[in-house]
Amino acid sequence: MKATGLVPAPSGPPLLQGWLARHQHPFSFYLHLVGIPMTLVAVPLLYRRRWGAAARLFGGGYALQFLGHLVEGNPPGEVLALRRRLSRR
Predict the structure, then answer these.
(1) In the prediction, which pLDDT does 9 show?
(2) Could you give phi then psi for residue 19, rounded to 5 degrees?
(3) % helix / strand / coil in the chain, to the nearest 5?
C-alpha cells in the first residue's frame, strides 16, 4: 500500500523502512503509535511493583498493535521473527 500522507513513506535506516512499509494503513499506524508507548511504559511499573497497572498497559498496548496487524493484513513482527528463527532449524 502506498503512503497516504497520513502515514510517512518508508525511509531512513533499513529497520525503520521495513517497519514503515509494514504499517501503511493509517488506522494500523496510529494504533501502533498508541500501543507501543503503552507497552514501554509498563516496564518501569514492574520495577515499582505496580503489577496490575503494568499488566493492563502491556496487554492493552499489545492488543492495539495486534488489532493494527489484523487491519493491515500482515503478521506482527514477533511472529515474523519467530517464523524466521524456526525455519533456520
Answers:
(1) 85
(2) -65, -50
(3) 70, 0, 30
